[in-house]
Description:
The complex is a heterotrimer.
Chain A: H1 3-20, H2 24-30, H3 39-47, E1 54-57, E2 62-65, H4 69-92, H5 100-118, H6 122-133, H7 136-140, H8 146-176, H9 184-190, H10 197-211, H11 220-227, H12 230-240, H13 242-251, H14 259-280, H15 286-311, H16 316-342, H17 350-364, H18 370-377, H19 379-382, H20 386-411, H21 423-443, H22 452-455, H23 458-481, H24 497-518, H25 521-542
Antiparallel strand pairs in A: 1-2
Helix pairs in contact in A: 1-3, 1-5, 3-4, 4-5, 4-12, 4-16, 4-21, 5-6, 6-8, 8-10, 8-11, 10-13, 11-12, 11-15, 12-16, 13-16, 14-15, 14-20, 15-16, 15-20, 16-17, 16-18, 16-21, 17-18, 17-20, 17-21, 18-21, 20-23
Chain B: H1 12-31, H2 36-61, E1 65-68, E2 79-82, H3 84-103, H4 118-139, H5 143-161, H6 167-198, H7 203-209, H8 214-231, H9 240-246, H10 249-274, H11 280-303, H12 308-323, H13 333-364, H14 375-378, H15 380-394, H16 400-414, H17 418-443, H18 458-476, H19 479-486
Helix pairs in contact in B: 1-2, 1-4, 2-3, 2-4, 3-4, 3-10, 3-13, 3-18, 3-19, 4-5, 4-10, 5-6, 5-10, 6-8, 6-9, 7-10, 8-10, 9-10, 9-12, 10-13, 11-12, 11-17, 12-13, 12-17, 13-15, 13-16, 13-18, 15-17, 15-18, 16-17, 16-18
Chain C: H1 3-24, H2 28-52, H3 62-93, H4 102-107
Amino acid sequence: xxxxxxxxxxxxxxxxxxxxxxxxxxxxxxxxxxxxxxxxxxxxxxxxxxxxxxxxxxxxxxxxxxxxxxxxxxxxxxxxxxxxxxxxxxxxxxxxxxxxxxxxxxxxxxxxxxxxxxxxxxxxxxxxxxxxxxxxxxxxxxxxxxxxxxxxxxxxxxxxxxxxxxxxxxxxxxxxxxxxxxxxxxxxxxxxxxxxxxxxxxxxxxxxxxxxxxxxxxxxxxxxxxxxxxxxxxxxxxxxxxxxxxxxxxxxxxxxxxxxxxxxxxxxxxxxxxxxxxxxxxxxxxxxxxxxxxxxxxxxxxxxxxxxxxxxxxxxxxxxxxxxxxxxxxxxxxxxxxxxxxxxxxxxxxxxxxxxxxxxxxxxxxxxxxxxxxxxxxxxxxxxxxxxxxxxxxxxxxxxxxxxxxxxxxxxxxxxxxxxxxxxxxxxxxxxxxxxxxxxxxxxxxxxxxxxxxxxxxxxxxxxxxxxxxxxxxxxxxxxxxxxxxxxxxxxxxxxxxxxxxxxxxxxxxxxxxxxxxxxxxxxxxxxxxxxxxxxxxxxxxx
Amino acid sequence: xxxxxxxxxxxxxxxxxxxxxxxxxxxxxxxxxxxxxxxxxxxxxxxxxxxxxxxxxxxxxxxxxxxxxxxxxxxxxxxxxxxxxxxxxxxxxxxxxxxxxxxxxxxxxxxxxxxxxxxxxxxxxxxxxxxxxxxxxxxxxxxxxxxxxxxxxxxxxxxxxxxxxxxxxxxxxxxxxxxxxxxxxxxxxxxxxxxxxxxxxxxxxxxxxxxxxxxxxxxxxxxxxxxxxxxxxxxxxxxxxxxxxxxxxxxxxxxxxxxxxxxxxxxxxxxxxxxxxxxxxxxxxxxxxxxxxxxxxxxxxxxxxxxxxxxxxxxxxxxxxxxxxxxxxxxxxxxxxxxxxxxxxxxxxxxxxxxxxxxxxxxxxxxxxxxxxxxxxxxxxxxxxxxxxxxxxxxxxxxxxxxxxxxxxxxxxxxxxxxxxxxxxxxxxxxxxxxxxxxxxxxxxxxxxxxxxxxxxxxxxxxxxxxxxxxxxxxxxxxxxxxxxxxxxxxxxxxxxx
Amino acid sequence: xxxxxxxxxxxxxxxxxxxxxxxxxxxxxxxxxxxxxxxxxxxxxxxxxxxxxxxxxxxxxxxxxxxxxxxxxxxxxxxxxxxxxxxxxxxxxxxxxxxxxxxxxxxxxxxx
Lengths: 543, 498, 112
């Protein structure tokens, strides 16, 4: 199978399944078969990596697909997560109503989520970005409760704002590119000499930053992930968010050293990394804790990218992608764990908490897990100065947060002590956990991190161990001492939105009053005559 | 003047485009309301074919089609001219008219054994009149012929508002008529000044003779203001919300999608064909500022509406603002394409939206947004079409509205006038907000499933869906329409950058 | 001062009066009459232009005369339409107010 066919079928199968959803019967059948959709994408990611792009000529755009190293790592992780979650879905919905809208929104988001790693031209990138963001509304508000709807509304607000900002950035990029080429690579190359470089960079960073919940545009994340059903939360937090990551990787001009922008990104990233931990440990819902962990991890990732941007180091892109790919699997697996824990009895929680501990602490860098590799990968870009120290502290903070998550997870166990969770739920969870642990090890030969003996040397192991250990110890101390932490509402800043919406309502009322005045007959006629006067004077002045 | 054949091949279709609707009016009067629907639909179907032939002719020859009535040349004779802009708008008009004719509800159709009502006769006549007037506006090449066409459009649009005969709609119709008459008076005053200064009203001859002088400025200002009043540009949008929301849904679709575009088309003719480089940058900025005001103001007020049809009407006010963003950016070729693209995609999307709202209101008996629960289950196709049209208005890829935004954004950035970009951004967000507000209750489930008082004809839903899909298609395959719009633009090369 | 100039000034006065009436008078019938005055002023202006642009030996430029005739027809139709709607409004409500109150637009039921 040649790579072109693989890339095309990666998107072709989900699209075909989506078209199949037009028939009600197929829609019902598809509920059990959602795991099939990402399989060609997985094949493409594993076997279809090539450095030269695949161009589909069409009128008037030439759709360009390309799979480079960063894209293929993320695509592998994302498709594995979508497959695992696809297996999880039928068991999750046993006993619940699963409407066709869930299937349709799921498939749309899947197409966008997989396509964004393949897109190499601005048009298809933007289209996939829209597909990964907008239909997710249906997933977030699936429960239909007022809480879910509020979360969905805030989510949509950020999506629309971010997309508009990105659109403006893309339009500026195209205006700058010499021959109007729509390829991302050409556009980023032209960014070097662009006069409006500052505007473009700020638009792109803010736009993508909204997607990855960069501080202070982060508060949609806890609200959305808490409100979504478990499989949706898993794929949204795991795979969908990485659209912003791949955007930053593709669009930031790592060939140029931009210390100002890089440092800004690093500072904001680290703020987010610590903020996520601090607020996360005050939350009681395990889903919310995981959401704040995502805020923290994405902030950390942004800091890594920022360091790379400062140094003008293009090798940071595949390393960051490696880290992000590990996060895809971990976050998805942990959300699945939350779902399993909710229906497992207290006696059988070991099945959940045991692997969960390894996976979660792997996020902090527990030695011999895939997470340790990920932490090792990003050590070089972060360097050994302040950023390096902050990174180590952040790892400790993540360990603390993950311990808190594990405690909250255990607390959500089902009342009946011996109740087993159904296999349909447990198998995907364990499979995802396993992938977290071994996946990065399978990939690492391609990441250039050094030989196994270097990685497994005791000094290296200790370097990743002690932050985790300190975080765990702090967590245990907190628990033992029963410290009461202040209760911060989910979505922290969003709670302040009350007065903002009152202000907006008042403004709206003023507008309506003005409209009433403007629509009086005399006012309108006078306005008309004034228009004549102004236009005449203006033409005289400017003519 | 570039070489245009005295009567180009396919030029006979230009005459047919005018003659067919007018003949239809007479036929429907004679035959009565009973056969009104049949006659109208036959003629409109033929009209779609004619529109396609005109567009094909323009595309093929790569130049505008012209026809001289009676073989007499201007300034004494009447010349019909169809360039790319006209051809595109004629095609769009015929499609929307066809959809409105297919959608029009049964109360406009006379049942067996019943006597015809006034509404059943009037609707078909008015539909054909709007069609005739729109074609005349697009094909006219003389400012006075265009005045007559404009008046015909107003006289066809006003009764459409008060077709139901309720006092509120009568008031709205009378206000519309009086304000539109004020607008036409201003337009005519400007035309007098132009004739007095240059001795001709033919667009081509005028373009060759105009000089930047006070008479021209005053004339253009008067005509622009008069046409702005008919297009309901902020702040003179006085008549639009009650008129468009009170009319029957098929009529609202026609009014929002087509009638306001007719007067807008004339402003484009004035600014881009008659006096392209004479108007100066500041005047363009004033028009753009009014457009920006429309976008923001219309968006915010739409957000505050409690009734669906009023919300859609204020959305029209806001979307009309996008049309006027092309005037400050007139030096950029993308701006003209963007503005006309907005006219086209908004026509499809707004017509679909009004028709969908009409179906929903017909089922529920009201159009309060807060009480729309359950309609998504009852009329899935309709609500889906409404959603598609909303996507186009908000500007989500790959719809026509999205492509419009791309064009206008690139024009504003290339011209260095980035503030229009900010306005477009704000407009997109506001549109997203009020469409969201309208759709969310519609998609929510009600506890008790809605019972439909009468089965909603699947055909009507399909028509609405087809219109909404048109709005999407125009955005997915924009290359041909964009090239079509550029044909016959004689003055593009002469426009000096301001 | 030529006759064309006198008529031109007359026309300007008529236009001004018509505009004033159209804007200020609250009753629709008076607005319609004011529109007619406005139209009359514009047609008179056309006539002045015709007189001024007359070729040697002719009384007036024939083109504006043709335009004025068309304009009169259009104005007449406009007046007829306006009066017809006004009469209907009077029949329905017994009054001729053009006030578009917010209460009115909120309480009106939709027509499908």
